[in-house]
Specification:
This protein has 404 residues and is of the alpha+beta class. It is 14% helix and 32% strand. The protein has 2 domains: 311 residues, Lipoprotein localisation LolA/LolB/LppX (outer membrane lipoprotein receptor (LolB), chain A, Clam), CATH 2.50.20; 80 residues, no CATH class.
């Protein structure tokens, strides 16, 4: 199938489809596995490209928007390659109960907030199930253990078999009288290809090229391939590829490739999927005998509470005073003032470690340090200004110079 390129005349249709798509998030993407939103990747499964009727980019976006899959079960393979530096195990010290001086009273290993970091790198297998808006299960499978998040009605459980610990909370989203008293389990967290596709479609505007680039087979199902690319230069995003099920319109695979090339930064795809109703027992859970149970409202601090998806994914920087954005579309840069003096100086091993994580830069703005991943870069100037975005180092320096 020949690629179909969108043009300026179709942008309003694309935006309409995008807005509709944002309302149809598959309920499998539930609870605190939000870290998977930045990266997941197995290769397309199957041999040969299926012969499907031609479809335009607008029609395929509308197909995604109209998809309303409520029941499914399956396996998702997740790979993340952000190019983060090896911290030598230091990251564990920031988890509740971890690091030097930590104790088992400082948190629960079953608390979802302690599991998010695991999805920020490497390859993982998730087993997922959904039955309507109030029954979901996501299990992170390890070599010798399993971590599960179960949402069943107004009950939310998380269980870590490795430590035999459970975390329990009430989903107060449907009970107005309980709001503000109990933690609310977030919905619409993009941990599946569908959730990620909805987030990507929000970026479709005049700065974006959208095409249909042939077909593929994913998890034994025929799919169209929707490709989204920035039209602007300076973005670290190369392209986003979404495999869309030809029957249901549900995205089966999501791949984000960096402009620098190489392995995908984010890639998530079903390796198995079944759209029949899961057995009701799938969503039943009772803590095993002897398991340590932590109640969500007993968390030691707000930092240990299950984060709200919207705050995590869309509003993570709103707490900074004077947050501003520079540019538009894929090259948008967030700018804010830390109120400090940039990166503190250090000597010896500590100084060498900090230097190894960043690159010193100079410009009309003065001097600073750029910290980079394969997708997001951040410039912290010596006077405490921060510029961050999915843009190149040169774009950050240019923005800092222009701000002076």
């Amino acid at each position: 199938m020949a690629p179909y390129e969108s043009d300026d005349d179709t942008n309003e249709e694309l935006r309409t489809g995008r807005r509709k798509a944002a309302r149809y998030v598959v309920p499998v993407a539930v609870m605190g596995l939000a870290a998977a939103t930045i990266g997941l990747v197995p290769a397309f499964a199957g041999s040969g490209d299926p012969d499907l009727p031609e479809i335009t980019a607008e029609q395929l976006i509308e197909k995604i928007a109209a998809s309303d899959v409520q029941q499914l079960s399956g396996t998702v393979k997740v790979s993340t390659n952000l190019g983060l530096p090896d911290l030598g195990g230091l990251e564990s010290s920031f988890a509740p109960g971890g690091g030097a001086g930590g104790s088992e009273d400082e948190g629960s290993s079953a608390d979802p907030s302690t599991k998010l970091m695991e999805l920020a790198s490497g390859t993982h297998t998730l087993r997922v199930a959904a039955d309507g808006p109030d029954k979901h299960k996501v299990s992170l499978l390890d070599k010798a253990a399993e971590y599960s998040l179960i949402h069943n009605g107004d009950e939310v459980w998380a269980y870590d078999s490795a430590s035999n610990e459970a975390f329990h909370m009430k989903d107060a989203s449907g009970a107005a009288e309980d709001k503000g008293k109990k933690e609310e389990a977030p919905k619409d967290v993009p941990t599946t290809p569908k959730g990620m596709a909805d987030e990507a479609l929000k970026a479709v505007d005049d700065t974006t090229s959208v095409t249909v680039d042939g077909t593929a087979q994913v998890a034994g199902r025929d799919a169209y391939k929707l490709v989204i690319k920035p039209k602007q230069s300076g973005s670290t995003v190369g392209q986003i590829s979404i495999a869309v099920d030809s029957k249901t319109g549900m995205p089966l695979k999501f791949t984000l490739t960096p402009a620098s090339g190489g392995a995908a930064v984010v890639d998530a795809g079903f390796t198995k999927v079944d759209f029949s109703k899961p057995d009701a027992s799938t969503f039943d859970f009772s803590p095993p005998k002897g398991a340590k149970v932590t109640e969500g409202d007993e968390a030691k601090s707000e930092d240990q509470a299950l984060p709200k998806a919207e705050e995590d994914l869309g509003h993570g920087l709103e707490g900074f005073d004077g947050l501003k954005t520079i540019g538009e579309g894929w090259t948008t840069i967030a700018r804010f003032d830390t109120g400090g003096e940039g990166i503190p100086s250090a000597s010896g091993d500590a100084g060498s470690f900090l230097d190894s994580l960043g690159t010193k830069v100079n410009g009309e703005f003065g001097s600073g340090t750029v910290f980079s991943t394969r997708l997001v870069n951040a410039l912290i100037t010596d006077d405490g200004q921060v510029y961050a975005g999915a843009v190149t180092k040169d774009a950050l320096v240019k923005a800092a110079n222009a701000a002076k």
